[in-house]
UniProtKB/TrEMBL annotation:
It comes from Reyranella soli. Keywords: Endonuclease, Hydrolase, Nuclease. GO terms for biological process: nucleobase-containing compound metabolic process. This is Endonuclease. PANTHER family: CARBON CATABOLITE REPRESSOR PROTEIN 4 (PTHR12121), NOCTURNIN (PTHR12121:SF45). InterPro entries: CCR4/nocturin_mRNA_transcr, Endo/exonu/phosph_ase_sf, Endo/exonuclease/phosphatase. It comes from the Bacteria.
């Protein structure tokens, strides 16, 4: 039976968080996901905990939260998170030892089938891809060390289009469920500032749900990709998200 996975970079608590949070909550209610991967959750505001309650109420079932903060100074600022309505069998984390970036994994029991779901956020999208390539290599090696589950899903902001070496390496082991543009939306802060003003809006896919060979993609697309009806500069985040209906077995 298909289950729905969603991933989104939350842009921490920047750019009018309290105004755009209802847009995120409304989209979660519309999508009714089973699994949600979140990048840049705000540690001071505990936004992952807030969205766990949102998902539980909107989907009328309890969600579990797995969260991993970044390391060193960023441990008090942001982290990665996973919401799951499926039982969590075990969790783990990886410190890339570069730019305080981490990954998390939760092994979920999906209808009796163990599936590893990873969430990560690779190095920023400006600059050389070599650091992201190193991180992709480390991530794949970690996944390989945990291959006893047999099926895996990787969610997150990879900050690279498919022609970049880092994303191309991921594509040798996993399939992206879709490649429509996810970055960057016209979300503006209170002073009108936007993320990465030197790039066009929504011209590249850098956010993915990657699936291993035995995971079947039923349908996929983008989400969190509509502005407020009352303000064309107010979007759920500076990234669009990705949703996918998947099957395992």
């Amino acid at each position: 039976m298909p289950f729905r996975v969603v991933t989104l970079n939350l842009e921490q608590d920047h750019k009018r968080w309290e105004e755009r949070r209802p847009l995120i909550e409304a989209e979660i209610a519309r999508l009714k996901p089973d699994i949600v991967g979140l990048n840049e959750v705000s540690i001071p505001l505990q936004t992952a905990r807030t969205l766990r309650r949102t998902a539980s109420a909107a989907c009328d079932r309890a969600f579990n939260l797995v969260q991993q903060t970044r390391v060193n100074g960023l441990s008090e600022v942001e982290g990665e998170a996973l919401l799951s309505s499926f039982p969590v069998l075990e969790t783990g984390n990886l410190d890339f030892r570069t730019q305080d970036i981490v990954a998390l994994v939760a092994r979920l029991d999906i209808g009796g089938t163990p599936v590893d779901v990873y969430v990560t956020h690779l190095y920023r999208s400006i600059g050389d891809d070599s650091l992201r390539l190193f991180q992709a290599q480390k991530l794949l090696a970690w996944i390989e060390s945990r291959d006893d589950a047999g099926q895996a899903i990787v969610c997150g902001d990879f900050n690279a289009t498919l022609e970049k070496p880092s994303a191309a390496l991921m594509a040798t082991r996993f399939r992206p469920t879709q490649t429509a543009p996810t970055a960057f939306t016209p979300l503006a802060g209170a002073g009108g500032e936007i993320s990465h003003p030197y790039w066009p809006r929504m011209d590249r896919c850098i956010d993915y749900i990657w699936v291993s060979e035995k995971v079947r993609v039923v349908a996929s697309g983008t989400c969190f990709d509509r502005a407020s009806a009352d303000d064309a500069t107010l979007w759920p985040s500076d990234h669009a998200g990705v949703w996918a209906d998947l099957e395992v077995g």
